[in-house]
Request: fold
Amino acid sequence: MSLQVVAIRDAREAPIPLSQPGLSSLFDRQPLERFDAGSAVFWEGDDAAHLFQVTAGILRAVRLLSDGRRIIVGFLRPGDLLGVSLKDRYLYTVEAITPVALRRLSRRRFEEEIRRQPQLRDQLFSRLCDEMTAAQDQTVLLSRRSADEKVANFLLMMSRDEFGNCTRIVDIPMTRLDMADYLGMTIETVSRTITKLTNSGIITATGRRSMMVLKMDALRSLADGDNGETGCCQRVRDMPPHRDGLTVWKSA
Amino acid sequence: MSLQVVAIRDAREAPIPLSQPGLSSLFDRQPLERFDAGSAVFWEGDDAAHLFQVTAGILRAVRLLSDGRRIIVGFLRPGDLLGVSLKDRYLYTVEAITPVALRRLSRRRFEEEIRRQPQLRDQLFSRLCDEMTAAQDQTVLLSRRSADEKVANFLLMMSRDEFGNCTRIVDIPMTRLDMADYLGMTIETVSRTITKLTNSGIITATGRRSMMVLKMDALRSLADGDNGETGCCQRVRDMPPHRDGLTVWKSA
DNA sequence: CGGATTCTTGAGAGCTGTCAATCGTTGTGG
DNA sequence: CCACAACGATTGACAGCTCTCAAGAATCCG
Reply:
């Protein structure tokens, strides 16, 4: 098979002991490279010769199906690593959504360093695992959740600042199309859902690309499901009834 | 965050040089444990004290959402590793679908061995990466594909033998409910789709739990999309028209 | 200001989920 | 051996959600 990791998230929530040099340190001395909004850092199919660390800005990782369908595999934020791979070609196109600043490292050199410093390999492994979990969560989100739940989850994701805290002001630098292709929906449904949230008084638009969450609890209960709660150790053998996760706020 | 790998697939397609002892060798001396069909190997939330290697049989990794929705994260086959984790609790329940034989290793001992033998770590890393890719492919499958495409993909997956070759005879040991919870559908839609495939002459039932593929090409073109073709390096900037991937066989 | 792009909104169709009934198989017990 | 229950699978009718197609509004940018 093949592997390519879209982004290795900076493990902000579970900080690694800082006594050791982190993966980021590999990039510290590299010069800053800037990309305009809309430009591509690399293309799907390109030779995977470099890794990048995001210093500033937001990017999207895009994959195109043969029939033209477009899928956004993930969004990249400052601190994320980009281009980690065991394949020699990039499997995704990565484009800047906002103006972006990156530091670049050759793959050869990166792998050398990883080989030389065991603690870096541990970190890489650990981050890969986080990425794995994120991918599976995304799978769950896409497979079993309604448009409302998807959008609520997305907004909560975007409302997290760099320390993982929830802010009431949410910046949405990406377009509706980006959101749609990330959530497996159409732009129309995304738009309608946001309108619905606004009409419900859960959020309010504060600008073209930003909004404020008025009822954080309502948004959370919409996002719903198993957010945060992992092991509840249920021993259900027969099929539990399928419930609609939305009734809560439909009446709001 | 959290991580837990459902299954580390045996990298059958890209065999690792056999000169070195593989991950499997760690389990070779462990006694065989048998589980009846329907029984659980471990439960979501249990202490993640052991790893398992599947010797025979098929299992499912199940996750339950708080609202009762059931998700099958993956199916496990002989050769797969099971319970690889960085967390101390299992995030999934794993149940035997058929009678199963496993070999067990304590997590402590597994991690010791991994630490001691660098080439094992490389293998683990590599498998983790494969698993990662599989998770992302699953994400794509679930987010952007119709019921027909999903089922076609599933059947192709099940038609792969242990060497990765496609066989015409397909065994489906799992129930419709398992398929549905894996594909993000309902049992009714799964059933209807299979009926449709049968009526189209693409497959035919050869037994209660097995079928034969009559038109492999048709099934493949149904499964469609970017199966196998990864980097086509398209530089499409504007949104391509969404096409129905099914018209081909609807007229068949 | 004007054009291009993005976003919103509406109407209608199609697909999938829901509810419900039936069929077929399996397994148990008389 | 048959009757019956239990379970899984199939099929039908219908509703609801999301997609599609289309038009219009809002915003951005030259």
Residues 118-144 of chain B form the longest helix (27 residues).
